[in-house]
Amino acid sequence: MSESVDLSSYAQNLPGWTGAKLAQLVQEAALVAVRKGHESIRQSDLDDAVDRLTVGPKRVGIELGHQGQCRRATTEVGVAITSHLLRQYENAEVECCDRISIIPRGQTLSQVVFHRLDDESYMFERRPQLLHRLQVLLGGRAAEEVIYGRDTSRASVDYLADASWLARKILTIWNLENPMVIHGEPPPWRKKVQFVGPRLDFEGSLYHDYDLIEPPVNFNLDDEVAKRTEELIHNMYDKTLSLLKRHHAALLKTVKVLLERREISGEEIDFILNKYPPQTPLKLLFEEENPGSLKFLKQEQERELEYALLTQSKGETL
């Protein structure tokens, strides 16, 4: 096992995994390291093993065209970079991105892996944290609009569905956004187990979504919830869109790097955000010889390695 591997982070990011499951993870990582010819198990081997056990192995023979890869990369980068920007500028308590991959695995064509927060952060989520998470879910569609204009695609549909569900819960279940008076629903402890069969309508209503025993007295409640959910999503989407527009160069650079390398880490996203501050002109990116490379990152890592070796040799001399 390489000394740079932090096993505690994997235990935290994989809640519910037993000791036997974690042992299986290390065994799978060892097999990956052997296939790649590594002398020890590296962090990349463990990441690959996590993906194999959670999502599935790499799909061979299924490759998206360039346009499809661009759309998937833009959506995933938009979600990840929104979380990094919110953490950097608004001190948001949201998950930061660990890595992005556009390599097809299992039933997915791309994926974003986030670092999980501590358990207490999920037990006592507050309104700002939930609104920031809503912005993260809207980051994929906002990134598409920044790069492609109104010519958006279905690549961000899953994120939009999660955003709609979260906004609806903020308004109804948690009652955090401009608290609204809801009449007629029995308290949860008085609900009875009742099988109502499959829903026959497409979207369902508030009555069916939350397993209420009796219809609410306020028959306009569904319309009011839908209207306020739409308003909340529009407000958060506008904030996310303006945030990504200020970092257009960093967004485009990250997309190009991801298309070139197929995978990118969260540390590299932070490095790009530092190298391309807000309002950076796009012409600086287009003037680069290869916009999809990270030569400056490699050069800085080489300098840090040389400095570490130099300081180590000086210490041995003394």
From TrEMBL:
InterPro entries noted in UniProt: AAA_lid_3, Peptidase_M41, Peptidase_M41-like
Q: Which residues cross the membrane?
A: none
**AAA ATPase AAA+ lid domain spans which residues?**
4-47
Q: Name one GO biological process term.
A: proteolysis
Keyword terms of this UniProt record: Hydrolase, Metalloprotease, Protease
User: Which SUPFAM superfamilies does the protein's record reference?
Assistant: FtsH protease domain-like
Q: Keyword 4Fe-4S on this protein?
A: no
Q: Which GO terms describe its cellular component?
A: chloroplast
Any one GO molecular function term: ATP-dependent peptidase activity
Quote any Pfam family the record assigns.
Answer: AAA_lid_3
Residue ranges occupied by any Peptidase M41 domain in the UniProt entry? 76-176
Q: Which family does it belong to?
A: In the N-terminal section; belongs to the AAA ATPase family.
Name of the protein in question: Probable inactive ATP-dependent zinc metalloprotease FTSHI 1, chloroplastic
* Gene that this polypeptide is encoded by: LOC110771723
